[in-house]
């Protein structure tokens, strides 16, 4: 099958022919229609993930997938060929990915694509959407509470802004001036903080005693923590927890995306209902993924989707 791979540690993404995988017991093979880029993929290409996860090369890149069930392994129940499904590849050692024409995943990791949701959107929803939902659940904002989201224009942040606003929070979200600022306003951020300017002054003008909670998706975690009111919550998807926060008077919550199908299906239903938007800014064909990585690394906003098959 055709796939975008990293051939060895630190190797750049390239199109290659690799063996088509088969579904083993309890597994499902999905014919992939769509996927999307995530920061995780950049970390794999750069070799950074090798310090955290074992790799089995060639590694097919891409964490997200959406497509149709193509082959059922022994013992799989509840799915049939042709079912529309989506999810996130959790393959350890790292080997399989969504940037290939087929991907094999455990059946219990599969979420169903609801009627009314196209596969391009489903393929851009998985990892970023789940991460956004998990991190907003972690800070659990009450109506009227101020929440500062740092790194808000990316795939995770653009969904997190909407989920926090839907809970009634007053959302402050960082962006560079321009496209990202316009996107965040459209998605419901109450205040867009120009992260190239005086961030401390801008936040103090809105929340003089500090914000009640902050979501850390990029940038300096300590500078962000200093903008939180005493006793406030700080949730990071970048592994910053209480040990790193030291004596600061904040509740530090390190978070990893909850990728359970129930949560993914709930998010998908929210998208169908029009309550959450997955802001796909551009769609690439599979062979264009190396260019997509370059665009992502150069600073894209929202999600970059990939049409695989
Ligand atoms: N632990 C988990 O389970 C998990 C799951 C998913 C994602 N993540 C991590 O969460 C992070 C966000 O993911 P993503 O896919 O949304 O990434 P992304 O699309 O690259 O978005 C990150 C955003 O941060 C902003 N940014 C960059 N440098 C910044 C800085 N110094 N200060 C403030 N903002 C800055 C950029 O927007 P502007 O330039 O417009 O400000 C960028 O759009 C990534 O690091 C990813 O690896 C973790």
Automatic annotation (TrEMBL):
EC class name: oxidoreductase
Domain Enoyl reductase (ER) residue range list: 10-306
InterPro entries the record matches: ADH-like_C (IPR013149), ADH-like_N (IPR013154), ER (IPR020843), GroES-like_sf (IPR011032), NAD(P)-bd_dom_sf (IPR036291), Zinc-ADH_QOR/CCCR (IPR051603)
Annotated EC: 1.-.-.-
Keywords (A to Z) from UniProt: NADP, Oxidoreductase
Superkingdom classification of source: Bacteria
Gene3D superfamilies: Medium-chain alcohol dehydrogenases, catalytic domain, NAD(P)-binding Rossmann-like Domain
A single GO molecular function term of this UniProt record: oxidoreductase activity
UniProt xrefs under SMART domains: PKS_ER
Name of the protein this chain belongs to: NADP-dependent oxidoreductase
Species in which this protein is naturally found: Catellatospora aurea
């Amino acid at each position: 099958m055709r796939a975008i791979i990293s051939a060895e540690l630190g190797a750049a993404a390239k199109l290659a022919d690799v063996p088509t995988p088969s579904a083993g017991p309890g597994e499902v093979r999905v014919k992939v229609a769509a996927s999307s880029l995530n920061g995780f993929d950049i970390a794999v290409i750069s070799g950074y993930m090798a310090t955290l996860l074992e790799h089995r090369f060639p590694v097919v890149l891409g964490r997200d997938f959406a497509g149709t069930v193509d082959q059922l392994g022994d013992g799989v129940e509840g799915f049939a060929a042709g079912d529309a499904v989506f999810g996130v590849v959790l393959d350890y050692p790292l080997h399989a990915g969504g940037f290939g024409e087929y991907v094999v995943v455990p059946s219990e990791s599969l979420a169903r694509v609801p009627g009314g949701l196209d596969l391009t959107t489903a393929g851009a929803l998985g990892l970023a959407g789940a991460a956004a939902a998990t991190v907003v659940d972690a800070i659990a904002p009450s109506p009227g509470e101020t929440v500062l989201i740092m790194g808000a224009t990316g795939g995770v942040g653009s969904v997190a802004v909407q989920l926090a606003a839907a809970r009634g929070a007053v959302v402050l979200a960082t962006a560079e001036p321009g496209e990202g600022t316009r996107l965040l306003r459209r998605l419901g951020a109450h205040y867009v903080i120009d992260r190239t300017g005086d961030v401390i002054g801008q936040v103090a003008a809105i929340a003089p005693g500090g914000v009640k909670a902050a979501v850390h998706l990029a940038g300096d975690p300590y500078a962000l923590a200093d903008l939180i009111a005493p006793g406030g919550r700080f949730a990071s998807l970048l592994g910053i927890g209480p040990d790193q926060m030291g004596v600061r008077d904040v509740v530090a919550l390190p978070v990893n995306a909850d990728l359970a199908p129930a949560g993914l299906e709930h998010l998908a239903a929210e998208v169908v209902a029009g309550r959450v938007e997955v802001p796909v800014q551009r769609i690439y064909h599979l062979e264009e993924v190396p260019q997509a990585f370059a665009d992502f690394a150069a600073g894209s906003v929202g999600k970059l989707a990939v049409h695989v098959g």
